[in-house]
Design brief:
It is built from 16 helices and 13 strands. With 427 residues, it is an alpha/beta fold. The chain has two domains: 9-30 and 315-418, Aspartate Aminotransferase, domain 1 (Alpha-Beta Complex); 50-311, Aspartate Aminotransferase, domain 2 (3-Layer(aba) Sandwich), CATH 3.40.640. The strands form three sheets. The chain has a seven-stranded mixed beta sheet with strand order 2-8-7-6-5-3-4, with helices on both faces. It starts with 8 loop residues before the first helix and ends in a 15-residue tail after the last helix. It is an enzyme of class 3 (hydrolase).
Amino acid sequence: MERKFQESLEFAKTMDLRDPLKDFRARFHVKEDEIYMDGNSLGLSSKEAQQSIERVAGDWKKEGIKMWGMEEGRYFHYPKLVGEKLRGMIGAEPNEIILNGSITTNLHQALATFYKPNKERYKILVDGLNFPTDIYAVKSLIELKGYTVEEALVTVKSRDGREILEEDIIAAMTEEVALILLPSVLYRSAQLINMEQITEEAHKRGIIIGWDLAHSIGAIPHNFKKIDPDFAVWCTYKYLNGGPGSVGGLYINRKHFGKEAGLKGWFGNRDDLQFLLEHRFEQAGDAGGWLQGSPHMLSIAPLEGSLDIFEEAGIQRIREKSLIITEYLMFLAEQRLEKYGYRIGNPRENHRRGGHVSLEHEEAYRISLALRDHGVVPDYREPNVIRLAPAALYNTYEEVFRLVEILEKITKEKSFEHYSAERGTVL
């Protein structure tokens, strides 16, 4: 259904009044003099997250080591207990999710578990637009198994530098491919890959497939009961608002519960045997068997608070607003910014678009710097992309309107020319 947007500020304000999620904004620490559009890189802190951190810190202060046994072992089971709160977001079965380490360490764990090369099948298939950490992990495992990257890595290249076509991925699924690792949403262009189609095609060929949900979880609902991936990993500090460096997530399909974890640690033991401290490893019978060290309680805590909000709001409603507000942003960009050299670099179709908009401009880096000094927090990605993520839970349509107004002013007046093009660190 084509939506009828208007360019006026009054229209934006009317949209905010009608927004069914508008009350959730008050539960986040939003700076009223700032337009925060970087929730796809680091989501804002919520009041619930802050309260959860304080609760865990208070239990540590009060109980010391006794906190492990509080409330029938609540903290002992924290990685699974809080992980269960994510089930509805991805359509997982009970005990298929754990919270552990970081997205990169979970990638290493999954690859070490599922990449079992042999003479016939020894290649790993990736895409050429994925975030570098995924590729680093894949190359590491290839080399650890005694292969060279040149002989064992298959990279599906983009035809236009923005998207990866499903047909190209399928065509690359040769008999030598043992494992596939792909992103659900491409971090630069916001392309949402058809996970169900690709997973089905991989399994037809006997190929293990895993997905990186870093840029979809918390913004897009998934149905893993239907998609049936072998594993998935994600971070929790983007759309899930778990806080900087918050714990990573790992999904193991229950059909693999009998498989031996590639990287073992004492928390992967059966609960009843863990504190016997024997050197014999008896793996837990669910995703908990892929745990390694002691739970990162202070890293899991803010996520627990944040997920309370998600459970209340509902991922379907979050996706509905995300689609509308990003479509509104694209509408305004087309109407007011294209004449200044901006281009929309993400798919337009709802079923192919993630939770952010990719604005391309030859001066994207310097424009991003200028945006900061105008009270807007964007996200820049090489070589020419300003990523803008109006988060459904706390961003408003009026903020989107103001954002485009500021972009127009910066470009029309060429104030970005006052900034250096020399690259800094995080932007």
